[in-house]
Amino acid sequence: MKAPERIDLRGVKVYPFGDVDSLIAYADWRKGILVAINAEKIINATDRTREIINSNIAYCDGSGAVLAARQKGAADVVKIAGCELWLEIVKRHHADRTFYIIGAAPEVNMATVAKLREQYPDIRIVGYRDGYLKDDADRQALIDDVVDKRPDVVFVAMGSPKQEILMMDMLRRHNAVYQGLGGSFDVYTGRQKRAPQWWIDHNAEFAYRLIKQPKRIKRNIAFVKFAWWLLWHKF
Questions:
Q1: Could you give the residue ranges of the DSSP H alpha helices within the chain?
Q2: Looking at residues 143-149, what average pLDDT do you find?
Q3: pTM for the full model?
């Protein structure tokens, strides 16, 4: 299956998918890690994370990444929110794929599994555990279990770049569709609210999160640099 030609955003290469259907179809065909790309991931990319991103399936999860991709000629690219994408994958494949659920606090992880099973009684979740890995032995035991259970889809909610590094280590031993989800399990189980639809529709979700969580100000300083790049067409 042919995917759209990748766009290079200052060393971070993204697939400018025009809709979620194209992304899921490509992931079903190719397998690998679905990496959500936003302004923060582009600015904070290191040699290690860039290598993971560029060897997998990066898609535009933030409005900044979309604007940058359009500046590079990807007129049809759209924003695909990772917190919606994983649920769409479950919706489409709950009856014909197996899943492994990793991440968040123990109670959030268990609540996520319980809600998925309530929503989709036929879903096959072959394994799950929280995101608190005590040491290297605990981490290796998790990887070994994923290899042993051989799930078709693995969701990992640990935050970046920790989740991408873990998924890459898993991918080396078991070929599947992996997706990093950050705090999506908290949103799914109602422990954290996503921005209201107006903020989402106006590409201001990051501003809403900043208002609700002022401590994010240090992280959002990066957006000033990104806005400068956009303004002066530095991509």
A1: 20-30, 39-43, 47-54, 63-71, 82-93, 106-119, 136-149, 162-171, 184-188, 197-201, 205-212, 217-220, 222-231
A2: 98
A3: 0.91
